Amino acid sequence: MITLYGTPLSGNTHKVRMALAFLGLPWEERLTDAAARQSDAFRALTPMAQIPLFVEGDVTLRDSQAILTCLAARHRAGVWDGQTPEERGEIALWLSHAANEIANGPAALRLARRFGISIPEDHAAAVTERFLPVIEAHLAHRDWLVGGRLTIADLAASPYLALMGDAGIDLAGWPAIDAWTRRIAALPGFPAMPGWGPPS
């Protein structure tokens, strides 16, 4: 049985939750709040004391991008992780954007504006302002980030963009991003999270 350690409001946890749901894999989710992450038991599982954490048998894997890569290779090889070297490179690019520009831009602003966590807001706003036009233009004439189909690029990049309202950013101002996140939420089996659910 797969165990996923995370929280309901974590976009990084939701990346993995989406992958497991779309793959039809059963899993147990364990609420792991900030206090639980500092426990000796959790630190014994992962030295970084971060979520999400994926455990299956003797496999323990941290970092949402790494977990998505593992799941794609196991269960959707060539479909979710690229059919050609060029696609694999493009997917890696969007995983990098998820871990860098999205994490340090919209996701960081969400931490500040929804949860009151102190961050360098000017820097996060500048990263967001620089990045959003790039992905908006990329999605303007395509349904998915890479290869004309759902890949781990979409799973990695979408949650914190779907939740930009929490960061004080109106998704209506970014119609291609908005349509893309709605498209993902409309997929069969999509697991809703607070702030992002299937279209009504």
Number of domains: 2
Strand count, sense and closure of the main sheet? 4 strands, mixed
Strand order of the largest sheet: 2-1-3-4
- SS class: alpha+beta
Instruction: Write down the CATH class of the largest domain.
Output: Mainly Alpha
Q: How far apart are the first and last residues' alpha carbons, in Å?
A: 32 Å
**What are the low-pLDDT stretches, counting only 5+ consecutive residues below 50?**
none
State the order of secondary-structure elements, H for helix, E for strand.
EHEHHEEHHHHHHH
Tell me about this structure.
- The chain is an alpha+beta fold and 200 residues long.
- The chain has 2 domains: 2-75, Glutaredoxin (3-Layer(aba) Sandwich); 85-185, Glutathione S-transferase Yfyf (Class Pi), Chain A, domain 2, CATH 1.20.1050.
- Helices cover 52% and strands 9% of the residues.
- The chain contains 10 helices and 4 strands; from the N terminus they run E-H-E-H-H-E-E-H-H-H-H-H-H-H.
- The chain has helices at 11-23, 34-37, 40-45, 64-75, 85-104, 106-115, 121-139, 152-157, 159-162, 175-185; strands spanning 2-6, 27-31, 53-56, 59-62.
- A 4-stranded mixed beta sheet has the order 2-1-3-4, covered by helices on one side.
- Helix 1 (11-23) packs parallel to helix 4 and helix 5 runs parallel beside helix 6 (106-115).
- It is globular, with a radius of gyration of 16 Å.
